[in-house]
Amino acid sequence: MKRIFPSEMNLDPIDFYDQVRTPHVDRPWLLLNMITSIDGSTHISGTSGGLGGPADQRVLGTLRSFADVILVGSGTVHAENYRTPHAPDGESGKRRIERKQDQHPRLAVLSGSGNLDSGIPMFDQDESKGAKPLIYTSENGNENLSENFQEKAEVVTLGVGPVDLSFVLRDLFDRGAKVVLAEGGPSLNHQLVEAQLVDELCLTISPLLVGGESSSIINGPVFSDPHQFQLNGLATEDRFLFCRYLSK
Ligand SMILES: NC(=O)c1ccc[n+]([C@@H]2O[C@H](COP(=O)([O-])OP(=O)(O)OC[C@H]3O[C@@H](n4cnc5c(N)ncnc54)[C@H](OP(=O)(O)O)[C@@H]3O)[C@@H](O)[C@H]2O)c1
At CA 21, angle to CA 128 and CA 203, rounded to 5? Predict the structure, then answer.
């Protein structure tokens, strides 16, 4: 990839994204990664796959290599038929070992309703792929969850109503997570931004105009006070634009 800001340089994605990520005193560093079309769509006919390509996949793999936990909303898990990510290999894997991180990031899904499909591939991982996924849910959601999840996941119940995302991050921190990668979708993103939990935003702009009425990377009411980010890096590969922002 070619970095174009802050200075021009050809580099490997691992060197563009490998930055110091210091956890907070009571929660992990939270990195949000999303891809959009030029016109801001986050999916084509329901999934984000059509927006991406090999360059974007390399970046996704690189970002996952930094994560102790990948946090995702149930809408995305269903829409994208989520799978356990591969263990990072090559230079990303080597650096992960140097940072003494587990081989695989752990998946964590949010579902207040408990209406989760236990047939999604992420719930069928074998033990060699690390710890079982976490499900964060409410008391009602826990009652709705299929019995299949007793073996397939670790369920964490956090009160009634929508799960408080600060509690989720605190729980992940207590489990040893220093970096959490949030992978959407837009409804979850809105809450993370509103709660001021996003430290870093990695945004990929795909060279497509797709039209339609897809949500932007944030789906929810207008923020009373827009959240500010500062541009930390810009890079390009295969006509994709890779933007890295830090919370201001
Ligand atoms: N372009 C990209 O990079 C990208 C990335 C991700 C997703 N997407 C696309 O975005 C779409 C899905 O996004 P979405 O916004 O509809 O859904 P989403 O944000 O993935 O998931 C929303 C669901 O997550 C659960 N949830 C979120 N916050 C919660 C909380 N505080 N407490 C309890 N549960 C909570 C709820 O599940 P329950 O309903 O089970 O309670 C809620 O309905 C798909 O089309 C996908 O392809 C695109």
Answer: 85
3-state SS class at 50: helix
Q: Which two tokens stand for residue 46?
A: 């329901």
Residue 59, H or E segment: helix 54-66
Give pLDDT tens digits for 51-103.
Answer: 999 999 999 999 999 999 999 999 999 999 999 998 899 999 999 999 999 99
121-144: pLDDT as tens digits: 999 977 778 899 999 999 999 999
Tokens 């994605």: give the residue: 13
Residues contacting residue 93 through CB under 8 Å, at least 6 positions apart: 65, 87, 103
Q: How many CB atoms lie within 10 A of CB 48?
A: 23
Distance 219 CA to ligand 1 centre (A): 9
Distance CA(154)–CA(108), nearest Å, equals 9
Q: Which of 243, 245, 247 is nearest to 1 (CA)?
A: 243
Is 2-247 a CATH 3.40.430.10 domain? yes
In ligand 1, the atom with minimum distance to the C-alpha of 36 is 1
Expressed in angstroms and rounded, the spacing between residue 62 Cα and the centre of ligand 1 is 22
- Please report, as a single letter, which amino acid is at residue 181: L
From the CA of 76, how far away is ligand 1's center (Å)? 5
pTM of structure = 0.98
- Name the strand (E) or helix (H) holding 48: none
Spatial CA neighbour of 232 closest among 14, 7, 64, 2: 7
